[in-house]
Amino acid sequence: MSFPAYEEYNDSGVDWLGRVPDHWDVVPLKFLVATRGGGTPSKTNKKYWDNGLVPWASSKDLKVELLDDTIDHITQFAVEDDAAELVDAGSLLVVVRGMILAHTFPVVKLLVPMAINQDLKALTPKEQLDPDYLSWMLRGSSRETLDRVDEAAHGTKVLRMDSWLRTLFAIPPLDEQEAISAFLDVETAKIDALVSEQRRLIELLKEKRQAVISHAVTKGLNPEAPMKPSGIPWPIEIPEHWEVSQLRRKMELQRGVDITKDEQIEGDVPVVSSGGISSYHNQAIVDAPGVVLGRKGSVGSIHYIEKDYWPHDTTLYVKEFRGNLPRFLYYKMCSMDLASYDTGSSNPTLNRNVLHPVRVPWPPLYEQEEIVEHLDSVFAEFDTLEAEAGLAIELLQERRTALISAAVTGKIDVRAFANRETT
């Protein structure tokens, strides 16, 4: 859908705004909003924190556009003791310090009163500025805002308020602000619904992938194969020519080797941590192909490595495949809920001595090859579908950003559309 432009424009004199409708004003942010900061009540005073019910927002909470609760809470005593102040519902929160500003400028509307920490600022609009328009205006100017982000001495990203408040914005009359907000509410909701559909597709593909793996490595590919009792809790039956064996008889797991960032020398050898490839070094200590499990951190994650590599101390890697196909062993590990074998310490850890005795169904080598070929073929199609869904999400999000920017800078005239949607 395309939208008309306004009839008359003037040059705003501002590079990022360009030409704006001739009846709009161009105003510094400092004349449009009032700002409030926050802080952290003393962590040593338990009265401020124990069993607290008052929401206390930090940047980790700003992953939504509407906020009604937070991860952390403080007590009413902290508020009454002036260790924290409540920000009114309807205010907007923005991040002014933190690494998230390296790529994202969150703008969040409060649905309930709450306190905020020192990395955030609360904004409330002054007269003749619609609160909803303010939120869209700030989102539509995120690129310009991120261009103003500086770096503190310790490397943290910081948005200097004195500089940001001098930013010039295009402000239409109040009724037009309301029309633009109504338009964006409707159109972005449509885009968000399409994004949700694509994300759901990706989740369904992941669930389907897991189901396909599980069936293939526990039942095989032949639905007509004669079955026999497995003698283990799951699966109850397996093909009668398969065996049930302890994992230690099919492979040997070994703990990875620690290497610090300072010890690494630039190269093309992947250093594999629990979450996957984390960096590159100039020396490998294990030959490819590799099957690597998350030992601590991302416990139970599984990675297939196609070149010689260095397994980090946070992993377990397959040292010996004992004549089995590495790729099949990778799929076999993917079928297991490895996180459930956590040793139960305060820091979740996967112990090879717990995994080695586990009894699992195991097919002969020729069937391992058939299963791997089948799964690789099926998942090539899944990968294509996931990539297409990911690209669709990216394009929809770009469309959303462009639409907001066009509306709040006056590049499109949505007054007639907004009136149709609200009547």
What form results from the Cα inertia axes? elongated
Head-to-tail CA distance between termini: 20 Å
Compute the number of helices: 9
The pLDDT mean sits at: 95
CATH topology of the largest domain: Adenine-n6-DNA-methyltransferase TaqI, Chain A, domain 2
Kindly estimate the percentage of residues that lie in beta strands according to DSSP: 15-25%
Global structural class: alpha+beta
Assign the CATH superfamily of the largest domain: DNA methylase specificity domains
Q: What gyration radius follows from the Cα positions, in whole Å?
A: 28 Å
Largest sheet: 5 strands, mixed
Number of separate structural domains: 3
Quaternary class = single chain
CATH architecture assignment of the largest domain:
Alpha-Beta Complex
Task: Give, in spatial order, the strands making up the sheet with the most strands.
Answer: 4-11-8-9-6
Stretches where pLDDT is under 50 for at least 5 consecutive residues are none
Roughly what percent helix? 25-40%
How many DSSP E strands?
25
CATH uppermost class of the largest domain: Alpha Beta
Notes on the protein architecture:
The structure is a single chain. The protein has 423 residues and is α+β, with helices and mostly antiparallel strands. The chain folds into three domains: 1-24 and 174-222 and 365-423, Helix Hairpins (Orthogonal Bundle), CATH 1.10.287; 27-171, Alpha-Beta Complex (Adenine-n6-DNA-methyltransferase TaqI, Chain A, domain 2); 243-362, Adenine-n6-DNA-methyltransferase TaqI, Chain A, domain 2 (Alpha-Beta Complex), CATH 3.90.220. It has nine helices and 25 strands. The protein has helices spanning 76-80, 131-140, 142-147, 161-164, 174-219, 326-334, 352-355, 365-408, 415-422; strands at 9-11, 19-21, 25-28, 33-36, 54-57, 66-67, 72-74, 92-95, 107-110, 115-116, 120-125, 150-151, 157-158, 168-171, 227-229, 237-239, 243-246, 252-255, 269-273, 276-281, 290-294, 302-305, 310-311, 315-320, 359-362. A five-stranded mixed β-sheet has the order 4-11-8-9-6, covered by helices on one side. Strands 18-24-21-22 form a four-stranded antiparallel β-sheet, with helices on one face. Helix 2 crosses helix 8, helix 5 crosses helix 6 (326-334) and helix 5 runs antiparallel to helix 8. It starts with 8 loop residues before the first strand and ends with a helix. The mean pLDDT is 95.
